[in-house]
UniProtKB/TrEMBL annotation:
It comes from the Eukaryota. Pfam families: p450. It comes from Ooceraea biroi (Clonal raider ant). This is Cytochrome P450 6k1. The lineage of its organism: Eukaryota, Metazoa, Ecdysozoa, Arthropoda, Hexapoda. Belongs to the cytochrome P450 family.
């Protein structure tokens, strides 16, 4: 009933392919634009253009690399997404665009959206003719006379800087200071004072709102970095999604402060000869006039103060900080500059005057040198069709044109040895010998930064104030050489843009058709079809063999919900088991691979026990490069598995466990003391029980396997506990790693995933070898796992067992597996059990009574024999493990071709075989009313009446978990310790019924937590 073909899947593929082809054709329609015009270009990537490079480095350095790459060429073309851009290299062309032919390039390409009036209408972004009218009106504030009057206000800020530095008591060795923040506070105070008439005093009040919102504008986190990038390079996108140039919060703050100041100034009649005064006059005189969509009122007026605020403090503070850095690294230049400052101050009797600041010649050289290293790029847009002089190239209206300041400032043709900080480049002689339009830190031509002189003035004042009294030297955290933030633009925000004409060019030299674009579409379509055919080649594998199978989806098989972490694998397999009721098996697919789920208990018995030699290996697997995962007993393949298991089995005998019980009991006593310390009398307290039991099991594993006293209750942040949690904390990455280990082992090998995670692997390696080396050197014996491994290394370390050695990471893999399974897995199992006891208080009461009866016979002492001889406790633990087995499924892989008994089905070598524990544990045929928690299922009579191979929480047969008895012992001891003195009841956070985390490859509660209320009970018996 599909629309195009007979299959919905094929319909979807056709639609998807058509959309991809259309998108490809649209996004590549302009590629070869520059090549067709005979211009050198950077080869673009479909859908990204050269944008991918912007994701790796700051825009200024990407454009500089283009400049360097095009050495000898006058320009070079590049692409952002699908749009052609042009970078100008030739200095004469730069001069034409910025100065001579300014009327053709009067607007910037970058631009905020018109709905962001604070950004759109600022002098920096506004386009001609409104720009020219506005600039003419604002120019008076930046004349020499105005600056000289404002200097008196700036001096006050300089005195505050002086006072602040004095207060830090920098005598002697001094102190480490973050100079970017120091400079920003100083420049923020100056802008607040000279533009808004406010005493901001950021130096003494670092939480001042002016400073807070100023920082937010240039806080280059990922979101803010991309917002500013979009304004500069993707203005269409900035307009479409409504990006705010100054950020939402800062825009609101600037608007609020501006109108408060304006209203106060207009009401009081006060005059300060600052920006606010000029804007008031403009509002009064021109407020009703419309200048090409701009008005001297509302947000259009606020925009001028806003851009003055941001440009004034950020550019100057960055320049001060970088200059101080260079002076720190070049101590000789710092000394020479300080001497010039001293000489100048001597002539003014120690007073820093406006004229003195502007006459420090060596200082000017240093400052220009620093600006040489701080600039980035300029942008313009062709407002009309423009023919490049002395060439055939015609730039169409709307074409973005870029100029690399960094490229020219670091061009050895103009600045020999450009990486060197050398103020002598700016001696009068060197300046005269250098061609024009190769140095322009504030831009050039009519659109040069209007506030350049103010920026220079405040920067010079700040540096003189610091250098006249203080010496700069590197600290331990000083980065040498300097490392720049790749997310941040290197100068203030740039330009605006005008919509461009669109053109479509076709290259007539393709391979299949007459068009490269069509060739690529054909190739992409062919690749998609090939991928489809490949990923569906095995579909109907089971159907052809007469076996029920689930209808698979192309590319996902039946595993889509698990792959998208919407369904736990154990739940998926249980559902398969239920759907195949009455059948011996059912087929399914993971991606393109056929899997078989066994439903018949006799076949399960054959696979796990009778015909074990045909299925001795698990399908799950680790990468051979991850030896700590690959060589664990859990994942190791036969015959190495059999040999290693035989060597490790002595550690888990009843005798060994009995010897270790005293160590475990110490951990149990710590659990009891911890609970006593919580003051659980009365109503008790809510406790997250997985973490509670996790501390207990971590301490046991640390003691019995590694010989360490972790004491997680006293030290909850101990590394052992931290890394045990990390293994089964289901972050997105960790969830996919564990899912892949069990169902996609080829992906694990391909991506070199680590079973235990990178950090945990490194921790276990460190702890193991420290303990192991100490044990070998001291010859101490503790009868624990380390002792067994020491002996194995001594006697078997040189032997190669099918690629396995009792040495290195292969040796470490054994306690690593014990560490992960023995701590966190057991903790989760105990937590599930406690949840069931809370929900079923009658069972809890009965179990407590049995425990207290046993304790009365041992005078209150918990012994190994007493722990193992509580039948009702055994029943309760078994029932909890029935409902919540640590891993809800088992898997094997056919080592050879295998014929299923009493059937015609031949399982091919390499076929994955899965068994659903949950399916069998919840099968009403074996466990009536399976959703009920009923320990009576595990009376001796009921166990004898139940068929074999339907209950196996730790597996069955030779591959059964080697640590089963150890896990049971931990679980029983923890339950005895808790129930002997405490009662478990549900709390507000307790989930009833229990909800399983669908992201987890192993059985885990939602979000990995179980909250219960624990309270002290009176267990005294008369």
């Amino acid at each position: 009933m599909a629309l195009i073909t007979a299959y919905w899947g094929l319909d979807g593929l056709i639609v998807l392919t058509t959309l991809m082809v259309a998108a490809y054709l649209y996004m590549t329609r302009k590629f070869n634009y520059w090549k067709k015009k005979g211009v050198m270009e950077v080869k673009p990537i479909p859908f990204l253009g050269n944008f991918a490079d912007f994701l790796k480095k700051a825009p200024g350095y990407f454009i500089k690399d283009l400049y360097d790459q095009a050495k000898g060429a006058p320009y070079i073309g590049f692409y952002i997404l699908d749009k052609p851009f042009l970078l100008i290299r030739d200095r004469e062309l730069v001069k034409n665009i910025l100065v001579k032919d300014f009327n053709y390039f009067s607007d910037r390409y970058a631009s905020p959206g018109t709905q962001d009036r604070l950004g759109y209408s600022s002098l920096f972004f506004i386009k001609n003719p409104a720009w020219k009218a506005l600039r003419t009106k604002l120019t008076p504030i930046f004349t020499s006379g105005k600056l000289k009057k404002m200097y008196e206000l700036m001096e006050i800020c300089g005195e505050n800087l002086d006072t602040y530095l004095d207060s830090l008591k920098l005598e002697g060795k001094g102190k480490e200071i973050e100079v970017k923040d120091l400079a920003a506070k100083f420049t923020t105070d100056i802008i607040g004072c000279t533009a808004y008439g406010l005493n901001v005093n950021s130096l003494n009040n670092p939480d001042a709102e002016f400073r807070k919102y100023g920082k937010m504008i240039f806080d280059y986190d990922n979101v803010r970095g991309y917002e500013l990038f979009a304004v500069f390079f993707l203005p269409d996108l900035a307009r479409m999604i409504g990006i705010k140039t100054f950020g939402k919060d800062s825009s609101a703050f600037l608007r609020k402060v501006f109108w408060e100041t304006i209203n106060h100034r207009m009401e009081s009649g006060e005059k300060r000869n600052d920006l606010i005064d000029i804007l008031i006059d403009l509002k009064k005189t021109y407020g009703s006039q419309d200048i090409d969509g701009f008005k001297f009122d509302g947000d259009d007026l606020v925009a001028q103060a806003a851009v003055f605020f941001t440009g004034g403090f950020e550019t100057a503070s960055t320049t001060i900080a970088f200059t101080l850095y260079e002076l720190t690294v070049h101590a000789d230049i710092q000394s020479k500059l300080r001497k010039e400052i001293y000489d100048a101050l001597e002539k003014t009797n120690g007073k820093i005057t406006y004229d003195m600041v502007n006459k420090c010649y060596y200082y000017r050289r240093i400052f220009r040198t620093k600006k040489n290293a701080n600039a980035a790029f300029l942008d313009r847009i062709a407002v009309d069709t423009y023919k490049i002089p002395n060439s055939d190239l015609v730039l169409e209206k709307g074409m973005p044109v870029y100029i690399s300041m960094l490229g020219m400032h670091f061009d050895p043709e103009y600045f020999p040895d450009p990486e060197k900080f050398d103020p002598e480049r700016f001696s009068e002689e060197n300046k005269r010998n250098r061609p024009p339009c190769v140095y322009f830190p504030f831009g050039e031509g009519p659109r040069i930064c209007i506030g350049a002189r103010l920026g220079l003035l405040q920067t010079k004042l700040g540096l003189i104030k610091i250098l006249s009294k203080y010496e700069l030297s590197p600290s331990e955290r000083t980065l040498i050489p300097m490392v720049l933030n790749p997310k941040a633009p290197l100068t203030s925000p740039l330009g605006r843009r005008v919509d461009e004409d669109r053109h479509f060019f076709i290259n007539r030299m393709a391979l299949i058709t007459d068009c490269w674009g069509q060739d690529v579409v054909i190739v992409v379509a062919i690749l998609i079809i090939i991928a489809y055919l490949y990923m569906t080649r095995n579909f109907k594998y089971w159907q052809k063999r007469g076996i029920l199978e689930l209808s698979p989806t192309p590319f996902f098989g039946n595993f889509a919900q698990c792959l998208f972490l919407r369904r736990a694998p154990a739940d998926f397999l249980k559902d398969l088991y239920d759907r195949a009721k009455g059948l011996p098996y059912v087929g399914f697919y993971v991606l393109d691979k056929p899997f078989l789920l066994l439903c018949d208990r006799e076949l399960v018995k054959n696979i796990m026990i009778k015909d074990f030699n045909q299925f001795s290996d698990r399908y799950s697997g680790a990468s051979p490069t991850d030896r700590i995962g690959y060589a664990t007993l859990f994942f190791l393949q036969n015959p190495a598995w059999k040999i290693v298991r035989n060597k490790l089995s002595p550690f888990f005998t009843s005798g060994k466990l009995k010897n270790m019980f005293n160590l475990m009991l110490e951990c149990g006593d710590n659990l009891e003391k911890y609970l006593e310390s919580l003051g659980l009398e009365g109503d008790g307290k809510t406790i997250e029980v997985i973490e509670l039991i996790g501390k207990f099991t971590t301490d046991i594993v640390g003691s019995t396997a590694y010989g360490l006293n972790c004491n997680s209750f006293k030290y909850p942040n101990t590394e052992f506990r931290k890394y045990a949690r990390m293994i089964f904390t289901y972050t997105l990455k960790r969830a996919y790693e564990l899912l892949s280990v069990f169902f996609l082992p080829h992906i694990v090998r391909m991506l070199n995933m680590q079973v235990f995670g990178k950090e945990t692997t490194n921790f276990m390696r460190k702890v193991f070898w420290e303990t192991f080396t100490a044990r070998m050197e001291s010859n101490m014996k503790r009868n624990d796992l380390i002792d067994i491994l020491v002996e194995l290394k001594k006697t078997q370390g040189n032997k190669d067992i099918e690629g396995f050695k009792f040495d290195g990471d292969d040796l470490l893999a054994q306690p690593a597996s014990f560490f992960s399974a023995g701590s966190e897995t057991t903790a989760v199992s105990v937590a599930f059990l406690l949840h069931q006891l809370a929900v079923y208080p009658d069972i809890q009461t009965k179990l407590r009574s049995k425990i207290l009866d046993a304790l009365s016979k041992t005078n209150g002492e918990i012994t190994y024999d007493m722990t193992m001889s509580l039948p009702y406790l055994e029943m309760v633990v078994s029932e909890s493990l029935r409902m919540y087995p640590p891993l809800g499924y088992l898997n094997r892989i056919a080592n050879n071709t295998y014929k299923m008994p009493n059937s015609d089905l031949v399982v091919e070598k390499g076929t994955p075989i899965f068994i659903s524990m949950l399916g069998m544990h919840f099968d009403p045929e074996y466990f009536p009313n399976p959703n009920k928690f009923d320990p009576e299922r595990f009376t001796e009579e009921n166990k004898q009446n139940r068929p074999s191979c339907v209950y196996f929480p730790f597996g069955d047969g030779p591959h059964m978990c080697i640590g089963t008895r150890f896990a049971y012992l931990q679980m029983k001891l923890s339950i005895i310790k808790i129930l002997a003195k405490f009662e478990i009841v549900p709390c507000e956070k307790t989930l009833i019924p229990m909800v399983i985390d669908q992201r987890a490859a192993m059985t885990s509660p939602l979000n990995g937590v179980i909250h219960l209320n624990i309270r002290r009970v009176n267990t005294n018996r008369k």
